[in-house]
Amino acid sequence: MLYFGLVFGVVTGNVAAHQAGMDPLRAYIATLLLIIPALAGARLLYVAVHWKTYRGNLRRIWDRREGGYIMYGGLPVVLLCSVPLLYGLRLSFGVFWDVSSFTILTGMLFTRVGCLLNGCCCGRPSQSWFAIRLPDSQGIWERRVPTQLLETAWAAVLLVSASLVWRRMPFAGALFLFVTLGYSSARFVMEFARERGPRPGSFRLAHAISIIAFVSSVLMLTLCRHK
């Protein structure tokens, strides 16, 4: 599902690049090249969070037979890497990341389905009416909050919303900030419903990153709009 997410995400981003009037070939090259640091950053943050598992066998860090990615780890790395790359390809930073919003959201639709099938990023056990009998990554089936489906649904909402408001954005890059703001706010809430560690629902790293992403997006939208 990660593979399908990457393929369809790149295709969607290329369509968006045409719509934005960007050079589609350069945008395509930039997207392909940035997938590498995006995956590396996502993997490294996962390893850092689960360091006790990997410190005894460092070869497992890059073992492609193992799963384990945290999207929040890839975003700051790929943003930094994109600065010199986009400059070299003579692509607008703001426009490219507006276009990449469609790539990311489309990819998320597929990858979260993969999480659902694999049991990772599962919700905590619950007897609520909307709970569904689902497995965790260890194969333990229980009625759980369907966090993977909730995040998939929210990605779809953001994708449709982005398509509707793109042309109304006040400046290049505003759409990306809008999507980041929308995702981080929902992720902050949904993170409490995830089952991780000995205390499900406790405050975790993803909460802190969501707060930073949310505040940063609000500040950038405010500052850039008044320039």
What's the quick description here?
The protein has 227 residues and is mainly alpha-helical. The protein has eight helices and two strands.
List keywords for this structure.
two-stranded antiparallel sheet; mainly alpha; 227 residues
Write structural notes for this entry.
The chain is mainly alpha-helical. It is 67% helix and 4% strand. It has eight helices and two strands. It has a two-stranded antiparallel sheet. The longest helix is centred in the N-terminal third of the chain and has 26 residues. It is globular.
SSE layout and pairings?
Layout: H1 2-20, H2 24-49, H3 51-54, H4 71-88, H5 93-118, E1 132-135, E2 141-144, H6 147-165, H7 174-191, H8 205-225
Antiparallel strand pairs: 1-2
Helix pairs in contact: 1-2, 1-5, 2-4, 5-6, 5-7, 6-7, 7-8
Q: List segments where confidence is low: pLDDT < 50 over at least 5 consecutive residues.
A: none
> How much helix, percentage-wise, in residues?
55-70%
Name the overall outline: globular
Main sheet?
2 strands, antiparallel
Q: Count structural domains.
A: 1
Give the helix/strand class.
Answer: mainly alpha
CA(first)-CA(last) distance = 41 Å
How would you spell out the order of helices and strands? HHHHHEEHHH
The number of E-state strands comes to 2
**How many H/I helical runs?**
8
- Overall average pLDDT: 88
Using only C-alpha atoms, the radius of gyration works out to 18 Å
